[in-house]
Amino acid sequence: GYGVAALNLMNTGLSGMGALYLVAMPILILVLMGKRAGIAAAAFSAMVAVVCAVLMDQGILIQNFRETPSWMLVLVTIMFLAVTMSILIQFYRFQERLIAQERHTQADLIQARELLEEQNATLEQKVQERTQELQASSHSLEQRNSELAIINKIQQALASKLDFQAMIDLFGNEIMRIFPPEQGNAQNYSA
Fold first, then answer.
1. pLDDT, tens only, 17-33
2. Quick one: 29 exposed, middle or buried, by C-beta within 10 A (0-12, 13-18, 19+)?
3. How far apart are CA 6 and CA 17, in angstroms?
4. Alpha helix locations (H) across the chain?
């Protein structure tokens, strides 16, 4: 690219296509290679334009058929290059910020997802623990209700029959109903 620009600059000076090459090359390098390379290419293009203008003033390069002074052409080229590169660099920075924000957002999303999975596992464990506690409590309440039912029957028996033998028989029958004897070991203690 710079070789073609140099050939055009030697033939037509800064008023020909060479000046456009000097502007186009840094833009192309900025897009393809990044901000630092684009800035370096812009500085090189500006330096080539200045050298070309100096050579035209000394008569080494042939000035174009136009009567525009070479320093004016250099200033226009450098100004156009500076404006174009400034706009492109700002756009490049904007893209870099967008990419950085996207990466940050994705990192936050991954972290939130991991936290949610961790909390979900913790919640499931707490639900299982609470369910086991409730089942144990329910079993304990059922056992307590059975005990209270026995006491209530004994109390009713005492209140209705003040017969001691009847109370013992009733109490024994309730114990046998709740805790059935194992086969072969059943013994009857009634008189």
1. 677 777 778 887 877 78
2. buried
3. 10
4. 2-12, 17-33, 35-57, 70-160, 164-178
